[in-house]
Design a protein that fits this description.
single chain, alpha+beta, Rossmann fold, Elongation Factor Tu (Ef-tu), domain 3, Alpha-Beta Plaits, 6-stranded antiparallel β-sheet, 27% helix, elongated
């Protein structure tokens, strides 16, 4: 194919604005998929993706399109993940394209994720084609949305295709716009090979399959290849294109999108963003932008049944084959026995991994409250990284504790301005700036500690704004603050899985709220169970779970009072002994209580 007839583009949108549905219609219109093979959300092959309405794993597909003048075009659609947790993967997919279709819901208008992905696309120097979707809905206000986009991008409202991806209305206009407005790829087939890996998946027969966009050079079956970031050498098993299944072609040239089956046994050796080059004639410099994915949220995963530990380990190993950003290590807890400390890109990533472990591998899990990674400056001058509150060293050895902060952007109707401000300031957030991109809409920029963001912040934001607000966030840096460990003692024993790192001024009310919640959740025993919150070396809150009382006086029907006293004393001694040897079973709800203390 002549490179001038190739168009590489992606579709970017906020969650649930119709990105996957538009991709389906494009595949049907170009005849890539027959009506008989058609299912909804073709490119979202994972059950969870269909259920949650959000693309979790990027994918790609090649389409053949004939223009009105009879010219044949090769269109490579690169589907991007649709959640802020996967913004690095989105940025790599954008680097593989020359154009982006920006899908905006005619009923919702521009939202936070729309803006975030739009700025990524502009930063990657892509030609942006705004498309207004869902014009068939009664609540659609396409003209107002077109004006919003015009104010933001400067694109003339009449140049924006107005479509209904669900019904297929005017979708042909989108294909015409791609051919006319997206520039062909620039790249020289005679130069040394440089191919960008924008996604990977693991195949049990072919090893790691790398999704590549060739920037320069030619890739042929039998070439010896080299990965520039990880330093791994390989000989490809298969080279081909997506239609949308894998079809071997044996050759790819500059400007094309396809796949390389590497035969490697671990995704860690072949990472997203790496540059693939030839071993015999290597490129001088790798492509820019490669990063090592850094987990932001940590949680402990423990099997409910102790004998499931080996199954959990095997399941995590299998998940990691497809997801290099998931990290885990062995962890033991006094309350929960053996499990794993896992690191995730964000809360949504954690939720996806947990659901996949439970659904695909049939493991019942207890997940501890998520925490973030703190930097601790020790008295000996060393800096330690702490991803679990239970691992925080003794306060006498610490000079300062630094916590991660995020830059967040909240897109909301003006009427919810006050309630959003209230929510963020209560979570120790700081106001930075505001902007009015359209009448009645406001964009608020804040800085907020990540620890305050990961626990039910998004749910609170949605409920306070009746579902109209949207959120985007990026890592800002570490800051020093007055942070201490809040420990929970149950029956005078510290429960490590319930420990928290909190700001000193929040310790008292958080400790009190947690103790009150645990008092409701922990079942009564035959002895009194004290629950204590300890911070800064002293008990700041306490509650007792009352004992189940057995009526020992039932058989004592009269006689002297000393007989009753004797029986009660005997009971008291028995309870004291039972308290020393008795253990308290802590239900799963108690570990989840840590998540809900902000709701009080």
């Amino acid at each position: 194919m002549d490179p001038t007839h190739i168009r590489n583009f992606c579709i970017i949108a906020h969650i649930d604005h119709g990105k996957s549905t538009l991709a389906d219609r494009l595949l049907q219109l170009t005849g890539t998929i027959s009506d008989r093979e058609m299912v909804e959300q073709v490119l979202d092959s994972m059950e969870l993706e269909r259920e949650k309405g959000v693309t979790i794993k990027a994918s790609a597909v090649r389409m053949a399109y004939q223009a009105e003048d009879g010219t044949e075009y090769e269109l490579n659609l690169i589907d991007t993940p649709g959640h802020v947790d996967f913004s690095y993967e989105v940025s790599r997919a954008l680097e593989a394209c020359e154009g982006a279709i920006l899908v905006v819901d005619a009923t919702q208008g521009i939202e936070a994720q729309t803006l975030a992905n739009l700025y990524l696309a502009i930063g990657a120097d892509l030609e942006v084609i705004p498309v207004i979707n869902k014009i068939d809905l009664p609540a659609a206000h396409a003209d107002e949305v077109a004006e919003e986009i015009h104010a933001l991008l400067g694109t003339a409202p009449e140049a924006m295709p107005r479509i209904s991806a669900k019904l297929g209305t005017h979708v042909e206009e989108v294909l015409r716009a791609v051919v006319e407005r997206v520039p062909p790829p620039a790249g020289d087939p005679s130069r040394p090979l440089r191919a960008l890996i924008f996604d990977t998946h693991y195949d049990s027969y072919k090893g790691v399959v790398a999704y590549v966009r060739l920037m320069d050079g030619t890739l042929e079956q039998g070439d010896d290849l080299h990965l520039m970031a990880t330093g791994v050498d390989l000989k490809p098993i298969e080279i081909g294109i997506f239609v949308p299944g894998l079809r071997p072609t044996g050759r790819l040239i500059a400007g094309e999108v396809g796949y390389v089956a590497t035969g490697l046994k671990s995704v860690r050796e072949c990472r997203v963003g790496d540059t693939l080059t030839s071993s015999h004639r290597p490129a001088d410099t790798p492509l820019e932008g490669y990063q090592h994915p850094k987990p932001m949220v940590y949680a402990g995963f423990y099997p409910v049944e102790g004998e499931d530990y080996a199954n959990l380990k095997e399941a995590l190993e299998k998940l990691q084959l497809n997801d290099a950003s998931l990290i885990y290590e062995l962890e033991t807890s006094q309350a929960l026995n053996y499990g794993f400390r896992c690191g995730f890109l964000g809360m949504f990533h954690m939720e996806i991994v947990q659901e996949r472990l439970e659904r695909e591998h049939g493991i019942n899990l207890i997940a501890t409250a998520p925490s973030v990674e703190y930097q601790v400056l020790m008295t000996d001058g060393s800096i330690g990284l702490i991803d679990s509150p239970a691992r925080l060293p003794d306060p006498s050895l610490i000079i300062e504790v630094r916590e991660p902060w995020m830059d967040i952007q909240v897109f909301t109707p003006e009427s919810a301005y006050g309630t959003v401000m209230d929510l963020v300031t209560k979570r120790r957030g700081a106001f930075v700036a505001q902007d009015y991109p359209a009448p009645g809409r406001v964009v608020l920029d804040f800085q907020i500690p990540l620890a305050e963001l990961i626990v039910d912040f998004y749910d609170q934001l949605k409920s306070r704004t009746r579902g109209y607000a949207s959120l985007d966030y990026h890592f800002s840096g570490y800051r020093v603050d007055d942070l201490i460990k809040l420990e929970i003692l149950i029956n005078e024993e510290s429960v490590d899985a319930l420990a928290l790192i909190v700001h000193r001024k929040d310790a008292y009310h958080k400790g009190q709220a947690l103790v009150s919640k645990l008092k409701e959740l922990i079942p009564r025993q035959l002895f009194t169970v004290p629950i204590q919150a300890v911070a800064g070396g002293r008990v700041i809150s306490r509650a007792n779970v009352r004992a189940i009382r057995k009526d020992v006086l039932a058989k004592c029907y009269g006689g002297d009072i000393t007989r009753k006293k004797k029986l009660l004393e005997k009971q008291k001694k028995g309870k004291k002994r039972l308290k020393r040897v008795g253990s308290v079973e802590i239900p799963q709800d108690a570990f989840m209580a840590v998540l809900r203390i902000g709701e009080e």
